[in-house]
Amino acid sequence: MTRTPEITLREFTPADGEAILTAFNRIFAEVQEGFSPRSLAEWRWRFVDNPAGGRASLALDEQGRVLAQYAGLGVRLLLEGEEVLISQSVDSFCDPAVRGGLARAGLFVQAGRPYAERHGFDGEGEDRLMYGLPVPGAWRVGRDQLQYSMLSPLWRLEGEAVALAGLEADTDVCVEVGDRVPDGVDALFEHAAAGQPALVIKDRGHLGWRYDARPEGEYLWLRALRNQELVGWMVLAAGAVEGRQALWIMDSLVVQGDDGARRALMAAAGRQARDQGLDTLACVATDACHEWDALQQLGLRVVHSGYSFAGRSYVPRRPVAWWAEHISLALGDTDLL
């Protein structure tokens, strides 16, 4: 009689990086076309160096090999004036070789449930919301067994680089190109956050980690100045999302109503795309985007992407429908690029 192997479920530690990557790189190479193996430096950037913390629940066999992982990246959020945590679910997997066995059926769920119990709670230091972009199979399992709900479609907005480069900008706004977080981002975020019910915190700590410190990322900064004061910024990256090659707006911030700064940044981004030989400038947005009208007035058109955000709320008075109405997520709030 064959003995049923023992499965251990536990939280990850920084020392687990190589074991996780051995399984992650092998499994994703089998299912994802064009997959590039992840380095240990990239893994540590995500799960160890993240100022909001990394989380992962692992399922291991008796030899310590990782069979399944349910993981997420912490995100700091300003929720009605209070700094709290939410998380983006990423990099979850289950070894195809153990999905079908009866003793191991639901191993993905077995890893996911303790993850949710450990990290999802309406309290200090816990995740008030978990969100992600699940593939169809993970969505079905999450909906049926892990209480996922649909949060928002992910919309794509795109425009012709040459046309955007020709936008006339206010002469009192100067846009400069840089390679790192500009000075003044904290004060600008504080100004922009006033009165917002839910806003991902885009301060120097977050931006420096997300863009400047990423080992496998190449990003370009634009900073908009008026009288030498920072009035807006934008982060750009060339690449493909859903097979669409473009210069992508990863993230940007302008105080609501400052159309001059927004227009100047968009024109500068169009010039960057044109100069890089790219026909398209694009970004993504959720239903709660505050700049829908402004972006379309500047010449971007809305296209439905193939992605949708799923989520689970841990705040009783804030169901997923509330988050869908109030939280705006950018491309930089995903790990797509």
What would your notes on this structure say?
This protein is α+β, with helices and mostly antiparallel strands. It has 2 domains: 8-147, Aminopeptidase (3-Layer(aba) Sandwich), CATH 3.40.630; 155-305, Gcn5-related N-acetyltransferase (GNAT) (Aminopeptidase), CATH 3.40.630. Helix content is 29%, strand content 34%. It is built from 10 helices and 13 strands. Strands 1, 2, 3, 4, 5, 6, 7, 8, 9, 10, 11, 12 and 13 form a 13-stranded mixed β-sheet that branches. The longest helix is centred in the C-terminal third of the chain and has 17 residues, at 259-275. It starts with 7 loop residues before the first strand and ends in an 11-residue tail after the last helix. Mean pLDDT is 93; it is low at 101-105.
Q: What descriptors fit this protein?
A:
337 residues, 2 domains, single chain, 29% helix, 13-stranded mixed sheet, Aminopeptidase, 13 strands
